[in-house]
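Revision sheet: structure tokens.
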Amino acid sequence: MSFIKEDFLLENEYAQELYHTYAKDMPIIDYHCHLSAKDIAVDRQFKTITEIWIEGDHYKWRAMRALGIEERYITGNSTDEEKFLKWACTVPYTMRNPLYHWTHLELKRFFDIDTLLNEETAKAIYEECNAKLNTPEFSTRNLLKRMKVQIVCTTDDPADDLKYHQRIADDDFGVAVLPTFRPDALLNIDSPEFLSYLNTIEAITRVSIFDFNSLCLAIQKRVDYFHKNGCRLSDHGLEHVPALNVPKEDIDRLFAKKLEGKAVSHEEAEKYQSVLMHELGRMYAQKHWTMQLHLGPIRDTNSKLLKQLGKDAGVDSIGDFNQAKPLAKFLDGLNKDDHLPKTILYNVNPSDNEVMATMAGNFMGDTQKGKIQHGSAWWFLDQKDGMEKQLNSLSNMGLISCFVGMLTDSRSFLSVPRHEYFRRVLCNLFGNDIQSNLLPDDMEWIGKLIQDICYYNAKAYFEFPELKSVES
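Predicted:
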């Protein structure tokens, strides 16, 4: 039998009451994930548990590689059943890794399976999951509705036509699926694909890009288009925020150099990114969007696997970049011109928790509750210890009562129970404080704060629209 009981992670009666009475039944706003809008639009029916659960999940891949499992059973051409059986053999060895909790929580919540997954139980669980997945109740849309998901924000390239978001909006199946503006390709001026990508943007916007100003005009058109289709967030994955001082003539000269097909240096690329990030922040502020800054990973470190599998192969790690000074300079540059949008700061390095929490406090105001957020524990920190540390640093340096809460940041439709996991951790922290007489036994007020963090703060903060489909 599984260890996921009714009071899992809830260590005392106060935590149990906070979770079961106030947190458990709140709707879910998953404001940052990497789910496929196409899969939702066509209401995809996954054929096997491997398809929905293991394909694309680099957390599982890393664990299997650590155990010495051959790559053909991870990302190779083995059968779905063979891959699942290898994952099942791995699971007992993941104890104290969040994968052990996530695995059994997801099996229980979606498939009503209360059995520990291991080599002996794998075959039966594989067959039971597959049988259920091939019923209408387990289509992608029904999986989201089962978990009381109200809003999903996908992650989308500026060149995306958003046709699948439009189709979902027209269907109005009960869950809002909104795009998020992720302009990595526009920032990567040192990429070999940069000029061909600009050609794509030119064709979509009908704007001739011949200098930096015309580039910004084209980007503004894409921001406008995303906004009309329900977008209210942007997202940036960065090692650190670029924040160099660049004279206008330098950026014009640098951009002209790139348009001529000449290579740009790392320093020149950072100059370009510094100016473009400022322009993007200004555009976001005008639209009342939220800018998400995911800071600090070092990506694609294993060149052999990168060549073999491509990006997102599960060979990234925590980086040790200088964050505080460039981040302060970037936020201040927008703020002094009244162009600072609502912003969420995510750190992947736990040593930056207090940096982000205190940085957020520097730029509050404008009558916006919690305008700058110390974002939810992210990536390698997305587990019990990491969540507790983020919640504690936010509590100590700011106001946890203003926090917009949890997100999945996942490509899997089975990852939604991470919201439950977070809510249990959150309620346990408050419950332990009450029991230790660090907080009063005022369950009604603290219960309200819990509900705000789980749902109401995010609902108010992001200002999501009524959905309407908008053509190009």
